[in-house]
Write a structure and sequence with these properties.
The structure holds 3 protein chains of 3 kinds.
Chain A (H helix, E strand, L loop, with lengths): L11 E12 L2 E12 L3 E5 L6 H8 L7 E6 L2 E2 L4 H10 E4 L11 H11 L5 H14 L15 H13 L5 E5 L7 H16 L3 E5 L3 H7 L2 E6 L2 E6 L1 H6 L4 H11 L2
Parallel strand pairs in A: 3-8, 3-9, 6-7, 7-8
Antiparallel strand pairs in A: 1-2, 1-4, 4-5, 9-10
Helix pairs in contact in A: 3-4, 3-5, 4-5, 5-6
Chain B lengths: L6 H11 L11 H34 L29 H33 L5 H15 L3 H12 L10 E3 L3 E4 L2 E4 L1 E4 L3 H29 L5 H19 L4 E4 L2 E3 L2 E3 L2 E3 L1 H27 L3 H9 L4 H31 L3 H4 L4 H13 L2 H30 L5
Antiparallel strand pairs in B: 1-2, 2-3, 3-8, 4-5, 6-7
Helix pairs in contact in B: 3-8, 3-12, 4-8, 5-8, 6-7, 8-10, 9-10, 10-13, 12-13
Chain C lengths: L17 H9 L4 H27 L18 H13 L7 H20 L2 H24 L15 H28 L3 H16 L2 H15 L8 H27 L2 H9 L4 H31 L11 H9 L9 H35 L1
Classes of the chains: A alpha/beta, B alpha+beta, C mainly alpha.
């Protein structure tokens, strides 16, 4: 296993040490070690079932783990409701299937968190929400319902919804896998812009173009463990591991 | 030069190929449709004509009176239980109202408890506790698969009928008594200043609406969240109690007392009403539990995950994400369950609870022989009651289904 | 280049698997949870031993009369002594083979509709189903076949519930299909008549329908016609059932994709060919779980026949309970027995419905 790159622990915003997780008796995550610095952009790739989604879902405790430790933005993850809510407020997440709330308008989707979690006045929450909707370039859809939007628009709303909570870390769980090809770009553009502003990002994705363009590090996972991690150039041009090479040849050659 | 057919020639050829016939009129779909409907009109017309003439002839032959004149005639029989004063000399019209009120009473009690049971066991299906989940499944699968009539009889004959006699009544704190003749509970009798407490209760209920609007406005302006739910409960209980204390407890409690062979005073709930209400609640409750389960299960896991990732607490996820979405599935199902409960309350006839069906289609029909009038009047009432339920539930449905997609 | 050597999978830590961990996660995950678990367990401990004792350990199993019930527990002798009446009513004992024959035929037809070779299955099973009620009447009544007549007032017991429910749903099937078609029709008069019919029979309490059948229906026939009470009730059940089934079919019609209609039109099928050959089989298939659910409702509702004095199983039980040789208060035993009979039939049908539904869902995905 390659060495953890980070040297100074002070600026590590996420520290994962010896993380192990089982579903029943199935060992899904095996000895995951990962340190993420503030402002770092990390792309995680790997075959399906390799544990990549499970890893990032552990970071905001959508999944529990049985062994190891996890520190997010200086808060250690323990089995405590308040503690978990604190971490979740600080970590935004974007899902493969958007998961917008179908019974709320786009604007209500965006203001739900600020109003009920951050206890902001409605006007303020709506102003912030409109700013973010403008950033993802769909302010005119504010009063529509999610079902009336295209997939790409829905995913951009989902990103804006997370950003409204003003998170320090953004997790992306295959944000473009459920989209038609022509909509992938509009979502990736938003993500690239976000990366350029210095957001700490962990993306599970197979969009290798995106990885080359913005990632500081690419991590390859298989069988529940980190096989290889490197900066994008090295990773794509000079993979150190047989398994990585095979995977890259499979996804790049079609 | 090629011989070119003109359009006219082509058309003429086509007509020849069809054998020179123009399209048969009976193959025209519109004429066919008209024909079918005409046939149906004639058939139905003949059916109703023969039925009505048969009915008239039969009624004449047996000497049955027609019309609604019987409603003002004295009924000459008493009913087991009545919410309004009633004597045997009162009219069939009044008996109709007595029965109607009794039907409404048992339906309201049934709907209330069925909803409570249904929601408890429906939500229990998603408990973290394995044992509770299994108990919920057991409840639904047992009571939904046993005929309601059997359940009514079970409670009436096998449970309530085996209770001890009045002298050996089961009692709770010497205030509530249960015996084979019914359930006896104390009654609160108010004196002069009792109206103050009643007003306080009304004020509290009105206050909830004001409070909700105020809390919503304040949250919109300042972002602060006010605990509306707990405050409302405190108001509804607190205000009337405070009013009672301030006016010096202006009421007496009438306890049931054993006189001779039975208890008198207080409120009496007859075993017929108990058995019917219990059976209706338990039976319909099992269907409502299924509806609740279906409603909650219809929400994808991703909704909860997205709400969690925003940092919402489990309580808020329930009230802001799960309940509003589940209700859109649950309310239409509740609508039909409530309607079947009202229709099923006619099983009162099996144990003699004097509901509308029992006193009217049962007894009044027997005495007057006017089957058509009594059954018609009764059916109309059930239709109207169900339309009212449907109307209210649709209003509720519109309230929960804000989304126009 | 390095070879990827996966870290070998380790078994999960003992504290997360195994019975202790399971109990911790599923029974004692929090303080309120543990309290509920203990409460439910306490209820079980309190209630189950006396119930087991009453129903089994100190129950009375042998004997033929009430005097045999000397022990404290349940008097199952009562159920045993009346079991013939519970199942067959007052049908003469030497003729009971006819009821058993019909039960056998019913099972046979059900089995045939699932197992016959595919090319004749539909036609053969539809014919068998439609013939079944007629054969049933002929066999049970007996006159047509030259057997002794058994008048309908002797029919009764649980088999009567089964036969009434089965005979009603079979005849209601084609009717409800027509009503559903009528409700979807573009012809305004036909549509309105269908809607009124369906909503009437769905909106009215089933008991009032039975009263109509027993009190009002005789007035509808010409003077002097005397239609058997059971047949009148049968007619009512058919109407009642077809109202509900029409709505089930309407749902089924909506579930068939419009492409199926277009494809049938495009190969030039006539309206009835299209409906009977293409659409109906698909409608029946997607509606199967709901048809079963409606049948369960009808089956449970056959007990309501007691109110108009038809000796179905609950009526038979009431008669048995008031029999002067059995006045020892055996209501609990009797009801539990009939509970069990109904519950096992209804529960197995709902299980079947659920299995078909699951099967259909996986078919859709595959």
């Amino acid at each position: 296993m390659s060495a953890v790159k980070s040297s100074s622990g002070a600026e590590d915003i996420i520290v994962i040490e010896n993380l192990n997780k089982w579903y029943g008796n199935f060992h899904v995550l095996r000895d995951i070690n990962l340190r993420v610095k503030k402002g770092e952009r990390i792309v995680i790739c790997g075959p399906s079932g390799s544990g990549k989604s499970t890893t990032i879902r552990c970071i905001n405790r959508l999944e529990e783990f049985q062994e190891g430790s996890l520190v997010v933005d200086g808060v250690e993850m323990i089995n405590d409701v308040k503690n978990i809510e604190t971490i979740r407020k600080d970590v935004g997440m974007v899902f493969q299937h958007f998961n917008l709330f179908p019974h709320l308008t786009i604007l209500e989707n965006l203001t739900l968190g600020p109003i009920w979690v951050q206890k902001k006045p409605k006007a303020e929450a709506e102003a912030t929400a409109m700013q973010y909707l403008e950033r993802v370039k769909i302010p005119d859809q504010a009063d529509k319902y999610p079902g009336q939007l295209s997939g790409g628009q829905q995913q951009r709303v989902a990103i804006a919804r997370s950003l409204c909570m003003n998170p320090n870390i953004m997790l992306f769980d295959e944000p473009t896998s459920a989209l038609d090809p022509e909509m992938i770009k509009e979502v990736l553009d938003v993500m690239v812009e976000l990366a350029q502003e210095g957001m700490t990002m962990l993306c599970v994705t197979h969009e290798m173009g995106f990885a080359k363009k913005v990632a500081d590090r690419v991590i390859f996972m298989d069988a529940g463990q980190i096989v290889e991690e490197n900066e994008p150039n090295e990773f794509f041009n000079n993979p150190q591991n047989e398994r990585t090479k095979l995977f890259l040849s499979q996804i790049l050659n079609h | 030069m090629l011989k070119q057919k003109t359009l006219e020639q082509t058309k003429a050829a086509a007509r020849r190929n069809k054998g020179g016939r123009s399209a048969a009129f009976y193959n025209n779909p519109e004429i066919r449709a008209l024909g079918y409907q005409l046939l149906l009109v004639l058939g139905l017309g003949y059916f109703f004509y023969s039925v009505i003439s048969n009915v008239l002839a039969n009624m004449e032959a047996t000497g049955i009176k027609t019309g609604f004149g019987f409603l003002t005639a004295s009924a000459g029989y008493d009913v087991l239980m009545s919410l309004i004063p009633f004597e045997a000399t009162d009219t069939y019209g009044r008996i109709f109202i007595v029965g109607f009120l009794n039907t409404i009473l048992v339906s309201v009690i049934g709907i209330f408890f069925a909803t409570v049971l249904g929601f408890i066991f429906g939500v229990a299906h998603f408990s973290h506790n394995w044992l509770i989940r299994k108990v919920a499944v057991l409840y639904v699968e047992i009571f939904r698969n046993i005929p309601l009539l059997l359940q009514v009889f079970f409670w009436y004959f096998a449970v309530l009928a085996t209770l001890p006699s009045a002298r050996q009544s089961l009692s709770l704190g010497e205030a509530i008594f249960l015996n084979v003749r019914g359930l006896y509970v104390p009654k609160m009798v108010g004196s002069d200043l009792f109206w103050v407490a009643e007003v306080a209760l009304a004020v509290a209920i009105a206050g909830i609406f004001v409070l909700r609007r105020w809390a919503k406005r304040r949250q919109a302006l300042t972002g602060q969240i006010f605990p509306v739910f707990y405050t409302s409960i405190a108001m509804v209980i607190g205000l009337p109690v405070a009013a009672l204390l301030l006016t010096g407890l202006p009421f007496t409690v009438e306890y049931p007392e054993l006189r001779g062979f039975n208890y008198f005073g207080g409120i009496t709930i007859i075993p017929e009403l108990m058995a019917l209400a219990i059976a209706l609640s338990v039976y319909t409750g099992s269907f409502i539990a299924e509806a609740v389960r279906a409603g909650v299960q219809s929400i994808p896991q991703g909704q909860t995950e997205a709400a969690r990732s925003l940092g919402l607490s489990e309580k808020r996820i329930m009230s802001l994400i799960i309940v509003p979405q589940a209700m859109r599935v649950i309310v239409p199902l509740l609508n039909s369950e409530y309607q079947s409960l009202v229709k099923n309350s006619t099983l009162a006839a099996a144990i003699g609870y004097p509901d509308l069906f029992n006193v009217f289609v049962g007894t009044a029909l027997n005495q007057t022989g006017q089957a058509i009038e009594t059954i018609f009047m009764t059916i109309v009432v059930y239709f109207i009651v169900n339309m009212v339920i449907s109307f209210l539930m649709n209003r509720l449905n519109n309230a929960v289904a804000l989304v126009s997609r | 280049m390095r070879e990827f050597q996966p870290v070998p999978a380790r078994p999960a830590p003992v504290k997360t698997v195994g019975p202790v961990a399971w109990a911790r996660a599923n029974l004692f995950s929090s303080i309120p949870n543990s309290m509920m678990t203990l409460f439910v367990m306490a209820l079980f401990v309190y209630f189950i031993p006396p119930i087991v004792d009453w129903a089994f350990l100190s129950a009375n199993w042998t004997g033929t009369t009430e005097d045999a019930c000397v022990r404290d527990g349940a008097c199952w002798v009562f159920v045993k002594a009346w079991s013939y009446q519970f199942f067959y009513g007052t049908y003469p004992e030497e003729e009971v083979w006819r009821i058993n024959l019909m039960l056998g035929l019913l099972v046979l037809v059900i089995a045939a509709s699932f197992t016959l070779p595919k090319h004749i299955r539909l036609k053969a099973s539809v014919a068998a189903w439609l013939l079944l009620p007629l054969v049933g009447i002929a066999v049970l009544d007996g006159r047509l076949l030259g057997l002794n007549q058994v008048t309908t007032d002797l029919w009764g017991g649980f088999t009567l519930n089964v036969f009434m429910a089965a005979a009603s749903i079979i005849v209601a099937f084609p009717f409800s299909f027509l009503w559903a078609l009528g409700r979807r029709s573009e012809m305004p008069f036909i549509r309105s008549v269908s809607i009124i019919f369906i909503e009437f029979f769905r909106g009215v309490p089933v008991l009032s329908l039975f009263f109509m059948g027993s009190v009002m229906l005789p007035l509808f026939f010409a003077e002097g016609t005397n239609v058997d009470k059971l047949i009148r009730v049968w007619i009512v059940l058919i109407f009642f059932m077809s109202g509900y089934m029409a709505e089930v079919f309407r749902g089924g019609f909506q579930a068939v994709p419009s492409g199926q209609y277009e494809a049938a039109d495009s190969i030039g099928l006539s309206y009835w060919q299209k409906i009977l050959l293409i659409i109906l089989p698909q409608v029946i298939k997607v509606s199967m779980p709901n048809i079963l659910a409606t049948f369960v409702m009808l089956f449970k509702n056959t007990t309501f026949l007691l109110i108009i004095g038809i000796p179905e199983v609950v009526q038979t039980l009431q008669t048995a309970l008031s029999n002067s040789y059995w006045l020892g208060g055996h209501a609990l035993e009797g009801y539990l027995f009939v509970f069990l009979v109904f519950w096992s039939s209804c529960f197995s049908m709902s299980l079947l419905a659920r299995r078909i539904e699951r099967q259909m869902n996986t078919d859709k995905r595959g």
